[in-house]
Amino acid sequence: MSDRSASVPPADAGTASRREFLKLGGATAAALSVAGLAGCSSSGPASSSGLGIVAIGMTSDLFPAFTQKGPHGQLPPISQFEAKHKIKVNVVTESSNTDTYFEQVRTQLQAGTAVVDVIAGDVSWPAQFGSQGWLTDLSGRFTPAERGAFLPAIINSVTWNGKIWGVPFYTDDGFLFYRKDLLEKSGYSTPPQTWSELEQMASKVMRDHKLKYGFTFTGASYEGGTVLGMEFIKTCGGSVLQGNTVTASSPQAIDGLTTARSLITRGISPQACAEYMEGTVEAPFLAGDSVFLRNWTYMFAAFMNPKLSKIHPSQVGVAAVPRASTAIAPVNVGGGWNLYLNAYSNNKDAAWKLMQFMSSPAAQAHTFETIEYSPTLAALYSDPQLQKAEPFSALTLAKAEIAETVTPPKNPYYKDMSAAMAVQFQANLLGKVTPAQAAGNVQAQLEQIIKRAGAA
């Protein structure tokens, strides 16, 4: 197989997001059609103070979920909502980089502005923004009966401090993708369950089939790198935070960071993993140069697109993320995005109608069919039409992984914590610090963040 790793750009703020990656390959070309968007919505700052007008803010990669026609010719969800409720929707698109988007939203909320009424945002935001009074408590609007239609683990993602702060929009789960055909040719009938099994299998398959890489993952200094660092720790039985108690320097946490670093030092993973983000991490696997890949649900669509993938879908297998031993329950650190109601909105009733509409079965099915993000409503996982259209039995696999998915810590100061962890996790992968030093640094820095917050 050809080695495309040299052509993979270094990860930075300008690296393509997961959805931009698929767009560049043509997987969602229709989403870029100007004609397809005409009359659906507007992009850019918009006042939402007038009656009958509601604005929603989101990253640019989510735009097709709201404004693209469905696969069966259905009108875009925004158009359907406007026709049904006689409410104009202004779509305000921001950076597709999650870290940049967070800062943009935080700046707007700190100023007490209602640039948007509805905010599409990460599962970590209820604690960070709810604690500041910037989000509306939805406990009264989002009734227990309505919540019952959603997967329980997903409802947990919008719950903080005993209150409901959002409506689940989509969920994202971590998977281990692997070359099923090559494992079978090398004598393996099942995927690895543990990290040691992955290393053993990767080494043999790399030798047998002259592949350059065994396993690729996102390790750059950004939120995705934080998530993977925490996941390595979780799969070794550790954690970084329990309530306000920092546990990042435990033996199990050190074992997790040791596992991550040893994959590189033993030649299973390339040093480039320390720079990989979504949009670059999948390149070696799609080129046929890697045995294993840890990535998200969007990969199901990538494998179905010959413009992106040199390997056929039949050559790919999907499994749970490995762990240190089978005595540890399978786990991945994931999450998803929810819809939040701006506390400063002047049109909360209209905003709430939009949130209900975009989290409805029809709208969530549209999101899955257009941008391949997994739904949060339990019933959609057995929907015959979606199951017929889905690649790789994606819904069945995603539902199984949701039960194993844990979210990042719920803490009002998670953003600062994530930034500190990202730096140390990457330094560990680069060999600038030992796993024990990285764990100790994270312990000290998170304790300092909590101490400063308590003194504020």
Describe the structure.
- It is a single chain.
- This protein is of the alpha/beta class and 456 residues long.
- The chain has 2 domains: 33-172 and 335-406, D-Maltodextrin-Binding Protein, domain 2, CATH 3.40.190.10; 174-333 and 413-455, D-Maltodextrin-Binding Protein, domain 2.
- Helices cover 41% and strands 14% of the residues.
- The protein is built from 20 helices and 15 strands.
- It has a 5-stranded mixed sheet. Strands 8-11-7-12 form a 4-stranded mixed sheet.
- Helix 4 (77-85) crosses helix 15 (348-358), helix 11 (223-235) packs across helix 12 and helix 11 packs across helix 19 (414-430).
Task: Sum up the structure in keywords.
about 450 residues; 4-stranded mixed β-sheet; D-Maltodextrin-Binding Protein, domain 2; 5-stranded mixed β-sheet
Q: Helix tally? A: 20
Report the structural category.
alpha/beta
What name is given to the CATH topology of the largest domain?
A: D-Maltodextrin-Binding Protein, domain 2
| Second CATH tier, the architecture of the largest domain | 3-Layer(aba) Sandwich
In CATH terms, the superfamily of the largest domain is Periplasmic binding protein-like II
Number of domains: 2
* Residue share in helix: 40-55%
CATH class of the largest domain: Alpha Beta
Oligomer: single chain
Number of strands: 15
User: Hey, roughly how much beta strand do the residues contain?
Assistant: 5-15%
Task: Itemize the secondary structure elements and their pairings.
Layout: H1 18-24, H2 34-37, E1 53-59, H3 63-67, H4 77-85, E2 88-94, H5 98-110, E3 118-122, H6 125-130, H7 144-147, H8 152-157, E4 159-160, E5 163-164, E6 167-172, E7 175-179, H9 180-185, H10 195-209, E8 213-216, H11 223-235, E9 241-242, E10 245-246, H12 251-265, H13 283-286, E11 290-295, H14 299-303, E12 316-319, E13 332-333, E14 335-341, H15 348-358, H16 361-371, H17 384-389, H18 394-402, E15 405-406, H19 414-430, H20 435-455
Parallel strand pairs: 1-2, 1-3, 8-11, 13-15
Antiparallel strand pairs: 3-14, 4-5, 6-14, 7-11, 7-12, 9-10
Helix pairs in contact: 4-15, 11-12, 11-19, 12-19, 12-20, 19-20
